[in-house]
Amino acid sequence: MLPAPRDVVERLGPPSGEFRDSVAAVDVAVLDMAGTTVADNGVVEKSFRAALERVEAPLPDDLDRRFRALRGASKPDMFAAVLDGDHALASRAHAAFEEVLAEHVSAGTVTALPHAADALRYLRELDIGVALVTGFDAATRDRLVEALGWSDLVDLVLCPSDVSRGRPHPDLVLTAALRLSTRSMGGVAVAGDTVNDLLAGTRAGAGMVAGVLTGAHGAEELGNAPHTHVLPTIGDLPTAIAATA
């Protein structure tokens, strides 16, 4: 039996005046994309394998396990790890990955998760700065945000090329917090569906680090990683923020 998530909250209705006051301590939310706010419908894994096949890279016997463990990291780092440090081949595989993924995005295969757009609007209405972070490259990031129609729902979108290091390093979270002018890292809420998301938020010193059960890692994996909350969906984040105020 899986261990119970540390804190699972229920979704509430539209924010009241009291609710608005209660979330004043949180001023920046840093949210992962694929698996947290975006349903990749298996596209990321399929694109990863297809990229390796396109460049005729050797496929490790434990590819599925290694891919799952690396979820949340930058895609160049993931390819380098799977290819045992062959950075030249990893670079070619990453380029192929972005090509395959772009095809899926253009075809509409990658969609918003339920409640994600509402959660983004919720947070913006509460004067919380919203940053999306991803392991995709800049072109795919921008194509995906445009396809989802989210350009007006977020304040900032970051990918590994915007920082020195991808997750599990804290760079994406820290950069988002600085650009959105947080009052303190204690006022930053981080949400993601992988252990690497939670490690990045914790290492950045974020006041809230929430695992979300709609993506790559489940309750057991997220529960064993450093976190403050484990939530059913990203739609539960505004309520979790209120509950911790």
Any overview of this molecule?
This protein is α/β, with parallel strands linked by helices. The chain is built from eleven helices and eight strands. Helix 2 crosses helix 5, helix 4 packs across helix 5 and helix 5 packs parallel to helix 7. The longest helix has 20 residues. The protein starts with 16 loop residues before the first helix and ends with a helix. 49% of the residues are buried.
Key words describing this protein structure:
alpha/beta, 245 residues, six-stranded parallel β-sheet, globular, two-stranded antiparallel ribbon, disordered N terminus
Mean pLDDT: 87
> In what order do the strands lie side by side in the largest sheet?
5-4-1-6-7-8
Extract low-pLDDT stretches. 1-24
| Total E-strand runs | 8
Binned, the helix content reads: 40-55%
Count the DSSP helices: 11
| Estimated structural class | alpha/beta
Topology as H/E string? HEEHHHHEHEHEHEHEHEH
**Anisotropy-based shape:** globular
As a whole number of angstroms, the C-alpha radius of gyration is 17 Å
Estimate what percentage of residues fall within beta strands.
5-15%
Terminal Cα span = 32 Å
In this structure, how is the largest beta sheet organized?
Answer: 6 strands, parallel
List the helices and strands and how they pair.
Layout (H helix, E strand, L loop, with lengths): L16 H6 L5 E5 L5 E2 L3 H12 L8 H8 L4 H8 L4 H20 L4 E2 L3 H10 L3 E5 L4 H11 L7 E3 L12 H9 L8 E5 L2 H10 L3 E5 L6 H5 L5 E3 L5 H8 L1
Parallel strand pairs: 1-4, 1-6, 4-5, 6-7, 7-8
Antiparallel strand pairs: 2-3
